[in-house]
Amino acid sequence: xxxxxxxxxxxxxxxxxxxxxxxxxxxxxxxxxxxxxxxxxxxxxxxxxxxxxxxxxxxxxxxxxxxxxxxxxxxxxxxxxxxxxxxxxxxxxxxxxxxxxxxxxxxxxxxxxxxxxxxxxxxxxxxxxxxxxxxxxxxxxxxxxxxxxxxxxxxxxxxxxxxxxxxxxxxxxxxxxxxxxxxxxxxxxxxxxxxxxxxxx
Length: 201
Hints:
Blueprint: E1 5-9, H1 19-27, E2 33-36, H2 43-59, E3 63-67, H3 70-75, E4 80-84, H4 85-90, H5 92-95, E5 100-105, H6 108-114, E6 121-125, H7 140-150, E7 155-158, E8 176-179, H8 181-184, H9 189-200
Helix pairs in contact: 1-2
Protein name: Thiamine phosphate synthase
Domain Thiamine phosphate synthase/TenI: 7-183
GO biological process, one term: thiamine biosynthetic process
């Protein structure tokens, strides 16, 4: 089985200290990519933040996916975008102008529909209880396994994944995992990621 990737999900509202300093730290860590998910920002605010984050990630040769604002992605001539499913449906012609697209899905139906948009991968979740999805029931391992059996594209697990839950994903045919809260709360980021990788493989 191939090495599973670790994708970081940003959360500027809960990051302790200076957010761009944390972004710099992430860009120098062993994560494989970042999704700049900052849905509380308007398009103008997101554009300004994205410019700085892309500059940092480019300097350190790391991939950053922009999120939600497909027009910002095009304006910055950026070729990595992660889309909520509904935006992908509503803006399919715009999204086709972007080279590499991921999508968030929450059901088998959304997975099947996503194929027509030629997405490169999908995030499925949330798998475990998560602080940002407190009112929603987690999808759990069994639903994730069913998605993996049916999927024609790489699947990343997302939601409540940390060093306590990661072992449940070890033997699954995942492309990788996404981590948010576990990363911004951890001071020893590189040590934490190294331990997670060992438990994942």
